[in-house]
Design brief:
Layout: H1 3-18, H2 24-32, E1 53-54, E2 60-61, H3 64-74, E3 81-85, H4 91-97, E4 102-107, H5 110-123, E5 128-132, E6 145-150, H6 159-163, E7 165-175, E8 182-189, E9 194-202
Parallel strand pairs: 3-4, 3-6, 4-5, 6-7
Antiparallel strand pairs: 1-2, 7-8, 8-9
Bound molecules: S-adenosyl-L-homocysteine.
The site of S-adenosyl-L-homocysteine has 24 residues, from strand 2, helix 4 and strand 4.
């Protein structure tokens, strides 16, 4: 690693802290997983900046501080089985793989899933299973989940995902119209229903129906 990259990584972690990512386990995971592995081409030079960046299929890798805040709100524990809807680059799933027992991640774009899988193999992240599907239906074969994270915005939390949460489980997701301001919310399933907590305004690509073209 050149001094320049080391310096940029230090600043990357510092920026996460100043933007509210304070959980030491989350920070350690974000130090171990190199965002530079998940960004390609001309944008690779900006991997350590706190901004979303374009990836294949017209999608984006989320802003690192938002990844950190979502992971922190999700509070996965080492025994947890997690579902992520919206694999994208695989970056969020890779961070979760450091904090949970097992991560299932789903994207509607086959190409993104193939690329993410290859990356997980190369990085030795063996507790992640990536697959292509419309994730708004969840993953009934592996339900219920301790934790669910959705990294694309729906108008409301999808019913199947609510149904696939364990009691005591947590789901973190952006909700709202795709082209206006969305809210990041945390849903906790209780014995009798669901508690909702608003975290902050965010902006994500929309959760779309069906499979993508590539
Ligand atoms: N978590 C990603 C960023 C995801 S961008 C990362 O760390 O890089 C949002 C992703 O959600 C896109 O890849 C998009 O294809 C996917 N997506 C949108 N609607 C979906 C759906 N219904 N099911 C599965 N994936 C979906």
């Amino acid at each position: 690693m050149t001094d320049d990259v080391a310096e940029r990584k230090m600043q990357f972690l510092f920026a996460l802290r100043t933007r509210g990512v304070t959980d030491s386990r989350v920070l350690e995971a974000m130090e171990r997983i190199d965002r530079g592995d998940f960004v390609r081409g001309i944008f690779a030079a900006r991997a350590y900046e706190d901004m979303p960046l374009p990836i294949a299929c017209g999608q984006t890798i989320s802003q690192p501080s938002v990844v950190g805040l979502m992971t922190q709100a999700l509070a996965p524990s080492p025994r947890d089985k997690v579902l992520e809807v919206g694999t994208g680059s695989g970056y969020q799933a890779a961070i979760l793989s450091q904090l949970a027992r097992r991560v299932y991640t789903v994207d509607r774009h086959r190409r993104l899933v193939h690329e993410a899988r290859a990356l997980f193999d190369r990085l030795g992240l063996t507790n992640i299973t990536a697959f292509t599907a419309d994730g708004s239906h969840g993953f009934p074969e592996q339900a219920p989940f301790d934790r669910i994270i959705v990294t694309a915005a729906a108008e409301d939390p999808p019913g199947p995902l609510l149904a696939q949460m364990k009691i005591g489980g947590i789901m973190v997701l952006p909700v709202g119209q795709s082209d206006t301001v969305q809210s990041l919310i945390k849903v906790t399933r209780t014995e009798t229903g669901y508690d909702y907590e608003e975290i902050r305004p965010v902006r994500f690509v929309p959760l779309l129906e069906g499979l993508g073209e590539e």
